[in-house]
Amino acid sequence: MFTSPDHLKRAGALAHRILPLSEAFALVPEGQDLYLNPTGPVALRLSAGDLSRAVDALEAAGGSEASEASASPAAEEEQN
Question: What is residue 63's predicted lDDT score, i.e. its pLDDT?
Answer without folding.
Answer: 55
